[in-house]
Amino acid sequence: MAKLYFRYGTVGSAKTMNLLAVAHNYRHQNKNVLLLKPKLDTRFGVDVIKSRSGLTMDADVLVETDTVLTEDILDEIHCILVDEAQFLAKAFIDQLREISRHWDIPVICYGLRTDFKTELFPGSQRLLELADSIEEVKTTCAFCNRKAIFNVKFVNGIATQSGPQVELGAEEKYLPACSYCYYEQVSENHLSTPLFRDPVDLDPS
């Protein structure tokens, strides 16, 4: 039986570049890949999947809350790759789970684990509950050399924990951070008690 995979990481961890590399490898072997992305993600264009390195591919399906992957879409597909999976509804994650089971098609989902408030996205929560394989795509903190686990949101150059969970574009900028640097960035406005400093770890693993 094929598996449902969740490959998560912070912003800037090359998740989308990994996805595009997997898609390239399948297509190089003349295998059919179905590329999915949430319709709400319009940062680089409505139907464009683009990595920060500049690599791009067109999405085959733009997922909305009521999207159903029918038999004609799944016919002769060898792998399903999903970008920005954290934005998907829980019901669609359930659908991907059933596709991997009943159609024997591997489904690989890439996305953030938590938002800028360190809270799980609904789609990510369901993937953590259902995935056969959960893998971390690692990168280092933007402020030190520790492994990044959180995402810091900046508005006008100031770190914030305010705003809606899903907010694309605008003036916000998101950076990856380790736990110490995350709380250090937001502590001035949001924390009343100091945090102890973790031991320095130069190995991102």
From TrEMBL:
GO CC term, one of those recorded: cytosol
InterPro entries xrefs: P-loop_NTPase, Thymidine_kinase
Molecular functions per Gene Ontology: ATP binding; thymidine kinase activity; zinc ion binding
GO BP terms, alphabetized: DNA biosynthetic process; thymidine metabolic process
Domain of life per record: Bacteria
UniProt cross-references to Gene3D superfamilies, sorted A to Z: 3.30.60.20, P-loop containing nucleotide triphosphate hydrolases
Catalytic activity, EC: 2.7.1.21
Binding positions for Zn(2+) per the UniProt entry: C141, C144, C178, C181
Residues the record lists as binding ATP: D83, E84, A85, Q86
Binding site for substrate: V166, E167, L168, G169, Y174
Record bears the keyword Ubl conjugation: no
Active site: E84 (proton acceptor)
Keywords for this protein: ATP-binding, Cytoplasm, DNA synthesis, Kinase, Metal-binding, Nucleotide-binding, Transferase, Zinc
Reactions accelerated catalytically: thymidine + ATP = dTMP + ADP + H(+)
Subcellular location: Cytoplasm
Quaternary context: Homotetramer.
Family (UniProt): Belongs to the thymidine kinase family.
Protein name: Thymidine kinase
